[in-house]
Amino acid sequence: MLNIPSIHVPKAADVLAELLREKILSGKISEGMDLPNERELGEKSGLSRSSVREALRVLEGEGLIAKRVGRNGGSAVIRPTSETIERSVRMFIRGQGIRLEAVLEARSAIEPASAQFAAMHRTEEDMLALEACHVKLQLASEAGDLSAYTKANLEWHVQVVSASHNELLMAFISAISQSVFVATELEGFNSLEVRNAVISAHRKVMDAIRAQDGEAAARRMGRHMGAYVVNVKHFDKKT
Question: Which fold, 83-238?
Answer without folding.
Answer: Four Helix Bundle (Hemerythrin (Met), subunit A) (1.20.120)
